[in-house]
Specification:
By secondary structure, the protein is an alpha+beta fold. The protein has one domain: Cathepsin B, Chain A, CATH 3.90.70. It contains nine helices and 24 strands. Helix 2 packs across helix 7 and helix 5 packs antiparallel against helix 6. The longest helix is centred in the middle third of the chain and has 16 residues. The relative contact order is 0.17.
Length: 366
Amino acid sequence: LSSPPAWPQRSAECTDHYDTCPANEAAENQPHFQGVTGLRNLGNTCYMNAILQCLGSVSPLVEYFLSGKYITALQKDCSEVATAFAYVMTDMWLGDSECVSPEIFRAALGNLYPAFMKKTQQDAQEFLIYVLNELHEALKKYHRRRSYGKGSVPRCCRKVIANETSIITQLFEGQLNYSIMCLKCESCTYKNEVFTVLSLPIPSECECSLQDCLQCFFQQDTLTWNNQIHCSFCETKQETAVRASISKAPKIIIFHLKRFDILGTMKRKLRTDIHYPLTNLDLTPYICPVFRKHPKYNLCAVVNHFGDLDGGHYTAFCKNSVTQAWYSFDDTRVSEIPDTSVQTATAYLLFYSCQPFSIPIKKCKS
């Protein structure tokens, strides 16, 4: 799994604070659907609520926890976070409340990372990586490490099966293959790197598409001067051409749009309007031909960020597998939205799935 980034030292406040379930008489007369549940803000925890809503929209993950399958995989020495996650998913999917509190999950993660207990802004993408890593650590199983695709498959397209697997790696983990060519002797070497979140550069400050971001990420890059790489054949540092491709496409691929730019003491947020498709995102150009099993993806969730780097607010758009409708989640405030409202200039994280989601579990009858 991805290595968690060094924890950011931030003292900025979010623009949100504590909230409680809204007293909405109109909402009380409407049916309460599974998975359409608000989350209380515990004091600048909008980043956590947005991520929990997006993960709660991934039906295979939800079903794994609601069915109790996670219990047999739990590692005894690190089960607290996974157990707390299961409790929150159960409340969101099987409860009858319009909103629930994620306090038990924050407390479990806060025991490991005290920064989450502070009432200061945290980055949703960094929080997501910590959550996925902790769930993986709690649920991982060990397997013999092997390389898949030997024989007729060229080395550049081979993928390595990790010796640790979990529901997290099965759903979210992909693999990049880097082709590294020395521009002097033209020898090639290859490097594999796993990912759970793919951070994409934004090539324009005004307007672009998700495909533009992908093309920018996967285009060949030439490393010169201080960035030269040591060539084992030339036995010295040389200018190098590097190109990435996907050798293992995950079932759920998460794109992080790199809107926050920090250069020394200068901070800015790119407010580029990025157009992203709701259906049929084609990743064929970026996947090694041998492994193009799931080249097209459909959007299932979005994390939005409003405001600036030193303050702001997170919300989520999620497609519900029961109603097949999109919903806006703003802490405790939940509302159905049309498909046309899912495309916004505030998107920060995009969750795509290569397979349609089924209803994770039927609601228990009282």
